[in-house]
Amino acid sequence: MPTEITSADYKEKARLIFDVSDISQFRTLLEEERVGSAKAHWAKVSPRVMTLFQVLMDRDLTELVAVLELYPEYVELVCEHFRYAYSYNEQTARTEAASRLLFITQASHSKQFVRNLLRKLTKMSEMELGELDRFVAGLKGEAETLHPIILDFYYHELAKRLDELGIHKLQRAVMLKKGAFMQSDEAFDFSAEDRDSNLDIPYMH
Length: 205
Description:
Distance between the termini: 27 Å
């Protein structure tokens, strides 16, 4: 049975340290805005707010999470936009920020939202064995505060990358044992075949 993550579970997670003054520049805009009921997701807000969230989603997600914690009324809108986003710049998401975003958006997840969020994480696909070892060790240090979806995703990415490297099966077994903490009972289907029914995004193949 998948493990259900509740809002109470999230409250027990360690929070990122951020200076609220860093996002104070957004307060006036966000507090004046009201989320409308238009059908098109970005039509629910003004162009200025739309642009703000596009910029925040294109960064490492730290500021985005800070904003959503102060203004949770924008959570659903952000989830919708992530669901339809096709590309980002080269700035990757901070793992802990992406994890917190998954926790605070738990009630608004769509499969394509989760897939697109995971695309912003640091990639294992070009790491050599030593880099993988260090990266997994870093994840282990954060494991208690990371969302199960992120940990499980990285476990599968680790197994995939080890296969690509073609290392000895004993080395592979050792690395997978080191990454065993990432395996989760929270099942999530990452496959393209299970995409949202109204979306058809070729890059997910």
